[in-house]
Design a protein that fits this description.
With 119 residues, the chain is an alpha/beta fold. Helices cover 30% and strands 17% of the residues. The protein has five helices and four strands. A four-stranded parallel sheet has the order 1-2-3-4, with helices on one face. Strand 1, helix 1 and strand 2 form a beta-alpha-beta unit. The protein is globular. The protein starts with 6 loop residues before the first strand and ends with a helix.
Length: 119
Amino acid sequence: MKQLPCIATVKAWYGVAVNLSAVRAIKKMILVTPFYSILNVAQDIYWMFPLSFLLKDKFESWRKVEGINVDSLLIIAEQDEVIAPKYGHNLANYFASKPKLKVKVIIGAGHNNIAEFMQ
């Protein structure tokens, strides 16, 4: 299988990148402000709606981790106001059996200003 170049993902496209990474050969994966399921993120914001019935694809990325065997970096914004940092840490727990995982928490960074804090 031909390898694709390194994939760097940003925010909302993360769920798509995890799906791609699980089925295509890539060299590396970088996930910025990751989540393990879009359903959990959406429920934090729209708690009053029955989202589990409304979302066709919940982008349950934790289910795809088993198929990912490349160097992976999860970048979590400590002060993320859109995707709670706990969701990135939860996803990292699913990667726990993967020796190629690094997790970087960007202290003081929020969801929309994380690039300002990265070096």
